[in-house]
Structures are given as C-alpha cells and as structure tokens.
Amino acid sequence: MGSTSAENDGKGVGRRGLIKRSAALGLISVPAMSFLSACASGGGDDQEKAEAGEKTAENPLAVNESAGMEFVLFDGGFGKEYAEDAVKLYEKAFPKAKVKFSATQKIQSTLQPRFNGGNPPDLVDNSGAEQMDMGVLVGKKQLADLTPLLDAPSYDDPNKKVRDTLRPGIVEMGQFDGDPVWILYYAYTVYGNWYSQKALDSLDAEYPKTWDEMLAVCEKAKKKGMAGWTYAGKYPYYIPFSMSPMIAKVGGAEVLKAIDNLEPNAWKHPAVKTVFEAWYELYKKGYILKGTPGLDHIQSQTAWAKGDALFLPNGSWVENESAKVIPADFGLTVSAPPGIDDNDTMPFGTIWASGGEPFIVPAKAANGAGGMEQLRIMLSEASSKNFTSKVKSLSAYNGGTDGIELTPGLKAGVAALELAGDNVVNPRMQDWYVQLQKEKIGVSCLGEMMAGRLTPAETVKKIQGYADEAAKDSSIKHYKHQ
C-alpha cells in the first residue's frame, strides 16, 4: 500500500504500529460570521404572534385554525412533492388557514435577513449547501423547543406520544445541551460507499473489506478504463460520509466523539492519520476520476451513474437525486467503508446512519404551533409511507415501510443497517459546527488533500489548528456528547 503499508518500510512506523501507539481526537468549528452577526443584531421589529386556538383531541397543539402558516423547504435530493402532499393534509385540517409553501436551494441567503428582521417562516427545512449553522441558531436562541410536539399525541394513535413513534437517536440528535429538542430530523439517512453491483461484477470482484482489497479493486477498474472513485469535489464535505466511519472502524467510536467535543489533539489520533494516508493513496495511484475536484455533487453523481467511476461517498438521498441518470440495471447498493485490516477496533460493517433533513421552527415564528402541527402530520404513518415511496428514503417515523416495494438503494441501506447492528456511528460535527465542517475541514483541508495540494500530515496539522481555534473561541457555543 505504499505510504500506508501495513509493514514498516524502514522510513517510519507501519500503519498498524501507528494505530497502536496513542489516542485522542477533536473537531473544528469556525463560525460563519455573517450569519452569527445577523443573528446577534437586532434590526427590525418582531412579527406579531398568532393567538392560540382551542386545544382539542384533533388539535392537541392548539393551532389557530384561521392563522396563516408559512413553510420553506430545501429543494434538494428529496424534491418537494412529499412536503406538498403533507401541506394538503394541513389545509384539509385547517381549511380557514392560508398556507404559503415555497422551496429553494438558497436557504441561508433567503432566510438570514428574515431571521435578522424578526419575521422568519413557521417551519424551515434547513438543509443543503446554504444550510444555516445549527449551532449558531441554537446558541443565539433563534429556535423554538420542539418538546410540545414530541409530547403531543401522535397523528395515528392518541395513546402514543410523537416521540414514541420515532426511530432511535432522532430525539437525541435534536438536542444540543440538556433536554430541549431544537431540531427534528425527518429523513433517516444511511451514509457510505455507493456503487453499482453490475459494475463490480464486471470486474469479477467482491466488495472490499480491507484497504489493500480496496486498492486491488480500484486497480482492476483502472485497467478497464473506470476510475475507482469520484466525489463532490466542490463540496468535499461529502468525503466524511465514508471517511468518518472508517476512522471509527480503525480507532474506535470514541475517536469521533473526541473530534466532536473539540478535545485537544483529537485530530492527531493515529487512526486519523492512517485513514488520511489511505485515502491520499487513491489520489497518488490515479484512482480518482480526472477532474473530480472541479465537480459538484450532481456532476460527480452523473459521472458515477454513467460508469466513469466505481465508488461514490454519499447518503441515501442519492438514489432519488440521481434517479434520472441511474440505469435500470445499475444494481444500486451501499456498503460500509472498508477498514485497514483485521486488527481494526470495530468490525466490518461499521457505518454512519442518522437523522437527516433537519426541520426547525423559528423562535420568532408567527405561527410556531402551526409549524409543529405540520411536522406532526408529516410524522404520521401515511405521510411517512408517502415520503419513503416517493423519495426512496426511510423517514424518522419508526415504520412506514409495510406494503411498500423497496427500491434497490433502500433495500441496500436496510441490509447495511442490519449488518452494522449496534456498530452505527453518528458524528455530530456537521450539525454542531456547520461552517467549520464544510468550509474549514471539508473545502480547505480534505478537498485540498484529495486534490494533492496537501499531504496527510499537513492536513492533520491544519485541521487541528482550526479545531484548537474553535475550542478557544468564546463567541462559539460549544457542545459535548452527553
């Protein structure tokens, strides 16, 4: 494996020896100052709140039946039809209410001025490349606590609370510090290495479980004119979808927790260096699709779907987002990342799976109760089934798949979760410190490393520097794994 060989080549410690030496980990968090300043400033008067309605069995959140409700959705991989269908149910329940629904990819630039001006919408799907920094929103008290929604009767069974209908980990993901729940992650996402089973079969290869096996598969692909990998080069924070669970597999889940906690020297854990060196070898051996650093997520997914590259780090939304370009006989599947060798801390199958598509109700929303009621409707079995059947993803609702013919990617995701068992990791950096994860770790470090402009050692040093700055920055709200 060259620079990441399991053996000591006389120039330093071999990769397995390196792993056995020490421990510690932490991650970075440099705030988006424009949004931080906007949230902190007080321009504009707050909008008038809608009066509460009558609380009944059918209206447990006491929504004002004639108050307007505004819902802004991120127009991304899941599309907007599932949300539009849920809005129709809201309008049926409250026929006197005027609902304003819109979808955009420009979440931050569209909504930042409105948060600043005190007139945000009632419900927001805060996702995408322009996602507002969740840690900043929480730290500046811009979000409403969703506990009333979670403690309300579920849409289908009045004897069961909404919180009791959710998949494991969903409630905890919405918490930052203590009991309040600030975010409801509606989708349930499986992250990992996505590939075509047909393409893998054409190479007469099996999915690799170790990194040497991965390199061997990539070499086979290269000889047949196919790159081993591509990724969203313009948004290299997709890379951790595969890299983070690999770090956990090699060094243990505590490594990722230390990173999230911004612990001193967390990025200097030998597992991080080893995994960085492994990935860097993909670049050095020419296994990355030419031009990848200049591709966005759609372009990289399209090249992958066309068979230009074998593996793609991504989330389970990719099946829906790339539906128009994935061939019918593609054999879409996903697997957990390989590790280094049999001496890894966690078993093969260790994967990242967690809530995705974060929905929030702004603290200054005019009709926050209406926003929560819209979410309660979306967490019904019918809406969940509609979401799963239309966008090819599991929802936060713990069920909703009975009677649905699962698509290839969804089947593969379910199988990957079954293989993982308890070995599911959930890094929090991407929602605790959004700008840090995307701009600093992703674009400035991982993107540069995979383009060959930083070495693994330089990347570790640079990221650790960002992490240390974030840990010492008193203007940033810091979070810890409980």
TrEMBL record:
Q: Chief location of this protein? A: other
Keyword Transport present in the record's keywords: the answer is yes
Gene Ontology CC annotation, any one: cell envelope
Xref: InterPro entries:
Bact_solute-bd_prot1, Chitin_NgcE, SBP, TAT_signal
Which top-level group of life is the source organism from? Bacteria
Q: Which residues form the signal peptide?
A: none
Could you tell me where this protein is found in the cell? Answer: Cell envelope
Alphabetized UniProt keyword annotations:
Signal, Transport
* Keyword Signal part of the UniProt annotation: yes
What protein family does this chain belong to? Answer: Belongs to the bacterial solute-binding protein 1 family.
Q: Which NCBIfam families match?
A: chitin_NgcE
Q: Which PANTHER family match?
A: ARABINOSE-BINDING PROTEIN-RELATED (PTHR43649), SN-GLYCEROL-3-PHOSPHATE-BINDING PERIPLASMIC PROTEIN UGPB (PTHR43649:SF31)
Q: What is this protein called?
A: ABC transporter substrate-binding protein
What organism does the record attribute this protein to? Streptomyces mutabilis
